[in-house]
Automatic annotation (TrEMBL):
It comes from Saccharopolyspora antimicrobica. GO terms for cellular component: cytoplasm; plasma membrane. GTP binds at residues 296-303, 378-382, 440-443. Belongs to the GTP-binding SRP family. FtsY subfamily. GO terms for molecular function: GTP binding; GTPase activity; signal recognition particle binding. This is Signal recognition particle receptor FtsY.
């Protein structure tokens, strides 16, 4: 082989190598999406921030009778992480060592129930001195004689031995209530933890420039950490990838607008979010009050939410009656009574340990008789894994339905509990048809993404969000305003 042949071969090899390197670089560049270059001429002119949406709407209320919303579909096929999760009754093998309430076995009244909430059955009718002491401040109580329901024959609701329509609590002056309009806007600062990790995290990644595989992985991680769940995360990431490429998104502003659009879409902006707490017709003219059941596990914020919702209704000029069907925790009844007295709402309560179904029934009866606009029934916290307690909840609803239509079943979920909230939601909705979700304590978590997951999982809209412990820290859930609060 001559020297010139060798040189030619070397040149050819070098050329081939050079071509290969150049091709590799070009291909790699193509896979990246660059947001750093401004291309004014071709860029679509997306709104820079927030769009035209204004979060000044109030909490919207509707009547259960007039809603046209189709019953939610439960997209079971799309469920994620269901493996090994408990459902109702799955605790059969769990040692039943948890305290159980006695469930009074009440017969359901006839559908046409001739009932009156008439008479506050005196608490201790047999104690002679009791007459003189209208309400002796809880002195060290004499051992309480078992309260036998004395049946004043006529007109009494058979299954309701114990609930006592409370004397309207000494109504202090009715408090001023924050307007319900623009609450999410007012409270948006409370979402700062979710905003800084989730919203700003995403914006930082999307706006940083070249989006390679590592960037997309980081985006996925951010979504997962914010509790959006695997299915929603994949869906959002895929959509962002496709749209960024197809729309020729180039600038951080365009990326932001796209992110907003994708997140809002994932929140189902068209879901019906009005709280069905308006009466059926005019209660003063034979109409029926709306009935709202508030359910959930312990400590999620049911009583607080019931109280806050009562304020929303009162602020809207409605009359409200509260049913304290949390007969398990005496403090909860007192707590609700305080909420009631602050807005001048009557509270129907039972004695500790009373059958919650009977208290709920009595509350609804009383509400009908006194022609209030809405009866809000606070139920006891219950572990979703305890069959007996879940059965009891089902019974509460069935008993109430003997008297009136239940318009809204609000499931209160604590946003800080993450995946567990989702499991609860699933089980509760098996037992009582949950019609709306209240996500509380969003002010204390960076995991605001649970909103996406819970809606997707249940097909039930988040209607309200709790953003603090203050009496008016309850806001309507508005997807656009929520996403804006995360991204701004
Ligand atoms: N930060 C914050 N705290 C809340 C919110 N909602 C409720 N809380 C607090 O959560 C705690 C529990 O609230 P409750 O209303 O008593 O909960 P519950 O579900 O009725 O409790 P049980 O009757 O024991 O099941 C209270 O300290 C409330 O002030 C919220 O949106 N944000």
């Amino acid at each position: 082989m001559t020297t010139s042949t060798v040189i030619l071969i070397i040149v050819a090899v070098v050329l081939v190598l050079a071509i290969a390197v150049i091709a590799g670089v070009v291909l790699n560049r193509r896979r990246r999406i660059s947001l750093s270059e401004q291309d004014d001429s071709t860029a679509p002119t997306e709104p820079v921030k927030g769009g035209s949406y204004r979060a000044d709407g109030g909490i919207s209320l509707s009547s259960g009778g007039t809603t046209t919303a189709a019953p939610p579909e439960h997209p079971a096929g799309e469920r994620t992480e269901v493996e090994g999760q408990p459902g109702v009754g799955d605790d059969a093998a769990v040692p039943r060592d948890t305290e159980r309430r006695g469930i009074v076995d009440v017969e359901l009244p006839d559908g046409g129930g001739t009932t009156t909430a008439e008479p506050p059955a005196p608490e201790k009718p047999s104690a002679p001195e009791a007459a003189e002491k209208p309400s002796a401040p809880e002195a060290p109580e004499k051992p309480e004689a078992p309260v036998e329901p004395e049946v004043p024959a006529q007109e009494r609701v058979e299954p309701v031995p114990e609930p006592i329509p409370a004397e309207p609590e000494a109504v202090e002056e009715i408090e001023e209530i924050e307007p319900t309009a623009g609450r999410l806007e007012r409270l948006r600062g409370r979402l700062s933890r979710s905003r800084s990790t989730f919203g700003q995290g995403l914006l930082g990644l999307l706006g940083a420039g070249d989006l390679d595989e590592d960037s997309w992985e980081e985006i996925e991680d951010t979504l997962l950490l914010a509790d959006l769940g695997a299915a929603t995360t994949t869906e959002i990431t895929e959509r962002l990838r496709t749209e960024i490429a197809s729309r020729g998104v180039r600038t951080p502003e365009q990326a932001r607008a796209l992110l907003r659009e994708v997140l809002v879409d994932a929140l189902g902006p068209d879901m019906e979010r009005a709280v069905r707490a308006l009466p059926h017709g005019d209660p003063a003219d034979g109409g029926k009050p709306a009935v709202v059941l508030v359910v959930g596990v312990n400590g999620t914020g049911k009583t607080t939410t019931t109280g806050k919702l009562a304020r929303v209704l009162v602020a809207d000029g409605r009359t409200v009656l509260l049913g304290a069907a949390d007969t398990f925790r005496a403090a909860a009844v007192e707590q609700l009574a305080t909420w009631g007295s602050r807005v001048g709402a009557e509270v129907v309560r039972g004695k500790e340990g009373a059958d919650p179904a009977s208290v709920a029934f009595e509350a609804v009866s009383r509400g009908s008789d006194t022609a209030v606009d809405a009866v809000l029934v606070d139920t006891a916290g219950r572990l979703h894994t305890k069959t007996g307690l879940m059965d009891e909840l089902g019974k509460v609803k069935r008993v109430v339905e003997k008297k009136a239509q239940v318009d809204e079943v609000l499931l209160v979920l604590d946003a800080t509990t993450g995946q567990n909230g989702l499991i609860q939601a699933r089980v509760f909705s098996e037992v009582v048809d949950v019609t709306g979700i209240v996500l509380t304590k969003l002010d204390g978590t960076a995991k605001g993404g649970i909103v996406f997951q819970v809606q997707r999982e249940l097909g039930v809209p988040v209607k309200l969000v709790g953003l603090g412990e203050g009496p008016d820290d309850l806001a309507p859930f508005q997807p656009e305003a929520f996403v804006d609060a995360l991204l701004d």
